[in-house]
């Protein structure tokens, strides 16, 4: 940005785009996938800018949509970091709260560009006929045959495909902000361009080589910082940490949830002196009979811990007994002392193979048994 330090292409574009949502008749919406990871967000924002700059859209505004609610943005800590670093304010981004896709669809005023996915998620399935373009790096599902422009290539990051378009057609307009967003995302997705990670293609490396000098960043510093921020929960509350990677399940009449957390129970206890009460209040807010928190961290050895909370102490006892009969290798840890000590239990988990994916079916079985017992008790 040698000529004008204050101008930020993307930030001005986004501010403008937000105003145009209400003033233009037709809207072209560029949307990433529902997981709304960094690649999805950056692809959507930068491709919406590209479309606006290259296509002459008289009565249509092109805007990026991040398909989560605004309050969930802060959970994507690496995205919060990178957008901030790129000079993009959160207020300039457009989330589901800000845009009524359904109303646009009903008025036939919507066209959709899919980036970082090529099949609409469940919440968006009704808009299949509105899809006009696809730019993606996942397996092609061969949907939406009417699509006019379709680029689906197995590169490391969807942002690489967007970068390719931008560097080909708009190279002179690429400023440090755009270059930083794209290069950072590609680095994170390809594990710092590591061929051994199995995601890198030549195109990813070429894009990063062109972008980094414009971003004026060192590759390793940028990657290390992003990797660090991805796991940095310092600015998140306990309930945010719990919902960051949460899945809810039902077994019979029992509603339970499992949160994966990349923090040790010890560090968490120091961060939040009210931790056990916060588990209870989270379980209450989600209407859960059982909350299972799976902690995993590297210190430097990979370590797993397990924390359980239930408002139903009889049920918790049954789950504890059932877990004791498995090969999880559980050793009790001392949770902070509280009045409701029979409602929670903390463990060190020696068997590190038990991720949520593997533990959940076991829990489901115990709870189905416990749900039956409960019915018999009544
Ligand atoms: Mn992706």
Structure, described:
The strands form two sheets. Strands 6-7-8-9-11-10 form a six-stranded mixed β-sheet. Strands 2-1-3-4-5 form a five-stranded parallel β-sheet. Helix content is 42%, strand content 18%. Strand 8 and strand 9 form a beta hairpin. The radius of gyration is 23 Å and the shape is globular. The mean pLDDT is 93. The protein is an alpha/beta fold and 378 residues long. It contains 13 helices and eleven strands. It folds into two domains: 222 residues, inorganic pyrophosphatase (n-terminal core); 140 residues, Diaminopimelate Epimerase, Chain A, domain 1 (Roll). The site of manganese (II) ion has 5 residues, from loops.
List keywords for this structure.
about 375 residues, alpha/beta, inorganic pyrophosphatase (n-terminal core), Diaminopimelate Epimerase, Chain A, domain 1, six-stranded mixed beta sheet, five-stranded parallel beta sheet, 13 helices, about 20% strand, binds manganese (II) ion
SSE layout and pairing:
Layout: H1 9-23, E1 26-31, H2 38-54, E2 60-65, H3 77-85, H4 101-106, E3 110-115, E4 131-136, E5 149-152, H5 158-169, H6 176-189, H7 202-215, H8 219-230, H9 238-244, E6 246-251, E7 254-261, H10 265-271, H11 275-285, E8 290-298, E9 302-309, H12 313-324, E10 330-333, E11 344-349, H13 356-377
Parallel strand pairs: 1-2, 1-3, 3-4, 4-5, 7-8
Antiparallel strand pairs: 6-7, 8-9, 9-11, 10-11
Bound molecules: manganese (II) ion (MN).
Manganese (II) ion binds at residues 39, 116, 137, 157-158.
Could you give the order of strands across the largest sheet? 6-7-8-9-11-10
> Structural class of the secondary structure composition?
alpha/beta
Number of domains as seen in the coordinates: 2
Q: Percent range for helical residues?
A: 40-55%
| Name of the CATH class of the largest domain | Alpha Beta
Low-confidence stretches: none
User: What ligand molecules are bound, each kind once?
Assistant: manganese (II) ion
Strand fraction band?
15-25%
The CATH topology of the largest domain, please?
inorganic pyrophosphatase (n-terminal core)
Would you identify the CATH H-level superfamily of the largest domain?
A: inorganic pyrophosphatase (n-terminal core)
Radius of gyration equals 23 Å
Coarse shape: globular
Order of helices and strands: HEHEHHEEEHHHHHEEHHEEHEEH
């Amino acid at each position: 940005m040698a000529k004008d330090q204050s101008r930020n292409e993307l930030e001005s574009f986004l501010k403008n785009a937000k105003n145009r949502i209400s003033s233009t008749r037709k809207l072209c919406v560029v949307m990433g996938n529902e997981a709304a990871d960094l690649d999805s967000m950056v692809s959507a924002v930068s491709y919406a800018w590209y479309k606006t700059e290259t296509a002459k859209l008289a009565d249509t505004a092109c805007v990026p949509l991040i398909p989560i609610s605004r309050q969930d943005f802060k959970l994507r800590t690496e995205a919060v970091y990178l957008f901030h670093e790129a000079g993009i304010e959160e207020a300039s981004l457009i989330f589901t709260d800000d845009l009524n896709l359904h109303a646009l669809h009903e008025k036939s005023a919507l066209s959709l560009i899919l980036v970082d996915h090529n099949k609409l998620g469940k919440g968006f399935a009704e808009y299949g006929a509105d899809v006009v373009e696809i730019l993606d790096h996942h397996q092609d599902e061969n949907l939406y045959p009417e699509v006019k422009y379709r680029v689906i290539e197995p590169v490391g990051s969807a942002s690489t495909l967007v970068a390719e378009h931008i560097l080909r057609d708009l190279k002179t307009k690429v400023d440090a902000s755009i270059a930083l967003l794209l290069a950072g995302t590609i680095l994170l997705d390809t594990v710092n361009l590591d061929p051994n990670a199995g995601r890198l293609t030549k195109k990813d490396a070429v894009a990063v080589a062109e972008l980094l000098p414009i971003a004026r960043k060192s590759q390793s510093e940028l990657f290390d910082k992003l990797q660090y921020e991805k796991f940095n929960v310092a600015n998140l509350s306990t309930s945010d940490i719990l919902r960051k990677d949460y899945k809810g399940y039902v077994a019979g009449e029992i509603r339970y949830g499992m949160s994966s957390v990349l923090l040790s129970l010890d560090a968490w206890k120091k961060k939040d002196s009210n931790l056990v009460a916060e588990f209870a209040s989270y379980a209450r807010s989600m209407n859960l009979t059982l909350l299972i928190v799976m902690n995993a961290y590297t210190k430097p050895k990979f370590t797993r811990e397990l924390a359980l909370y239930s408002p139903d102490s009889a049920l918790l006892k049954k789950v504890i007994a059932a877990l004791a009969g498995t090969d999880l290798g559980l050793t009790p840890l001392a949770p902070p002392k509280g009045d409701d000590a029979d409602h929670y239990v903390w463990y060190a988990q020696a068997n590190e193979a038990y991720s949520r994916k593997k533990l959940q079916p076991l829990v489901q079985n115990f709870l189905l048994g416990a749900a039956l017992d409960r019915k018999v008790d009544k």
